[in-house]
Amino acid sequence: MRCIPVFLDEEIVNQYYNGYCNNILWPLFHYLGLPQEDRLATTRTFQSQFDAYKKANQMFADVVNKHYEEGDVVWCHDYHLMFLPKCLKQYNDKMKVGWFLHTPFPSSEIHRTLPSRSELLRSVLAADLVGFHTYDYARHFVSACTRILGLEGTPEGVEDHGKLTRVAAFPIGIDSDRFTQALELPEVQEHMKELKERFAGRKVMLGVDRLDMIKGIPQKILAFEKFLEENSHWRDKVVLLQIAVPTRKDVPEYQKLTSQVHEIVGRINGRFGTLTAVPIHHLDRSLDFHELCALYAVTDVALVTSLRDGMNLVSYEFVACQASKKGVLILSEFAGAAQSLGAGAILVNPWNITEIAASIGYALEMSADEREKRHQFNFKHVKTHTSQEWAATFVSELNDTIVEAQLRTRQVPPLLPNKVAVDCYSKSNNRLIILGFNATLNEPVDALGRAGQIRELEHKLHSNTKEPLKKLSDDPKTTIVVLSGSGRAVLDKNFSEFNMWLAAENGIFLRHTSSEWMTTMPENLNMDWVDSVKHVFEYFTERTPRSHFELREMSIVWNYKYADVEFGRIQARDLLQHLWAGPISNASLDVVQGGRSVEVRTIGVSKGAAIDRILGEIVHKKGMKTPIDYVLCVGHFLAKVTFHLRLCYCYRKIMIGLADPKLWNLMKMCINFLSQSYHLNHLQYQELCYPNPILTGHHLCQNYQPPPKPVRRQLNTRNNVRCQT
Ligand SMILES: O=P(O)(O)OC[C@H]1O[C@H](O[C@H]2O[C@H](CO)[C@@H](O)[C@H](O)[C@H]2O)[C@H](O)[C@@H](O)[C@@H]1O
Ligand SMILES: O=c1ccn([C@@H]2O[C@H](COP(=O)(O)OP(=O)(O)O)[C@@H](O)[C@H]2O)c(=O)[nH]1
Hints:
This protein is of the alpha/beta class. Uridine-5'-diphosphate binds at residues 208, 210, 243, 245, 286-287, 292, 311-314, 317.
């Protein structure tokens, strides 16, 4: 079969397959909690099982890697191999990797209970394309990535610093021709004949499931019992054939289920059986393909009562074999198949035994006309949405995704080559370093916004950055500007001890730490709008848990980065509507939508505009005989904030360097610190163009012409009066 086996030893199989896959991921992905005693045991063994899981995935990766040839597509399947995409991409990031999940992906609220939640998501995201059976599962996955990892969910998939992982639904199908053709075979016809004779005079109901908790076998049998109880006239006219294929027999939960089902079947057969017939025929084994096809073909009503099921192919197979009989499918709404066969099937909630019992009655007595219509609908679907089509669509989508990604990467700035940054720095003589503050020099914040002391952290310089910053700022060949949206007080508190420039409120206020604050904004700015905007912000802060707003001197910001991401976004949209309709409708204001914030400020106040003024200031102040020959921006400057000098276009993009070779190590420390703290695996820089010829980020303008000297207005901070000097 051209398969290459991956041999796992017994211990790994036990910890990886029986343990982590089937005792942890399987019940979790199917919304089934563990029994109390197992829960504690699982908690204790979790780490060793997860280690075995990673090890087993790595073993698969090693084998794939050994056989991989350039251009191959690698398609990883199911929850057993969630770690594989990452392992493969680590070997070769050009490998085309897809991952498909055959089970449901649960709500992010369920996924977040998993201790390894983030690691698993990140490994899957290493794939180029991630597929699920239904849109709901895909939606849950994207939502887990946004809520747990704090990444951006887009209609296309999940974005992580410019890298998009495509996420989409690819409902599986079956090879329907194989089933329809099998029905013509003499041995299948023979089986059908035997079955018809065996159950002559009785309607045949069928269940075909692995003996798994997710399949809702006890619920199905109990519903059948209820039906017999309430419809005595049907007792000798209907039989339920339940094929329960043994599975995962080493897992204790499955052993318990077997006994439970036997007990219920025995009880019902004892209750409703006669000397010559029993209502339930229960088989603890699998059938061969031909027997199964025959059984599907003679069935009047198929019962699929999965509590959760990725898709459920049995329902497709039943439909494929019903061209002549046109039997009825009763299908759980919690099976993926309900999304595609729902229109022709009778959908039921498997937890509602009364509803299933009523549906059994309805199905058995359904008119031929209705059966025909329902069947046609589903038959058409099964015939057209085949497994071949499913596989071809996934693979072609994967190839397209790679092509699109290549086009995208041309637009995304390339990664910062750290060594080049260091080399250029050490060769330069007049460096300008522009640093952001929030999300750059202070503490990173957990995606779930858990840091209780978040507001504190937000405004506090990270202790690890103090020493590098001190050395940098004392270097006479280096000018540092901290350019932040934060107010003056915050910058004063954190940076007064350094020799540097501070630009507060996006550059409205500027000072060198050796002198007083000044502003370059026009006098007598109309700030009448503030109160009404504040009123709106207060309203939304009260109604959006963990959001807050900050009233600055020239602007006001509503921030929801610690709030529930999705709710925050909805609230932000609503808030904007309130603003447009009210306070800002007539005012000359800029409304800036950040990643997780909304800021309102006077027109013209932006980091882009500010940088020009700042440069004018520092260039004139320093006299600047030597042109700036190195520019470095480290920041979380929002996308599309273009510095006036087109210094760079930064979105969590880092350019970093140090003057003195002795400081190289320190610089590397800095880079590593920042990249690890903010998961900036994609340090980026962009070629810059000012004024001409094209310069790289590290060599700014040999021919730099400082802008005209600006008018300076000194701020009298003590009594808070602005006056022009
Ligand atoms: O190998 P087993 O442990 O006996 O399990 C059999 C397979 O069960 C799961 O199947 C899922 O995939 C089906 C096709 O996509 C889908 O229709 C069904 O709803 C799922 O349960 C499991 O995901 C497979 O890996 C197992 O091999
Ligand atoms: O005796 C049996 C009973 C079932 N099946 C097959 O097992 C599969 C079950 O797939 P499904 O998607 O319904 O559920 P899963 O077991 O994968 O969760 C179907 O293709 C059935 O034809 C089988 O080969 N022999």
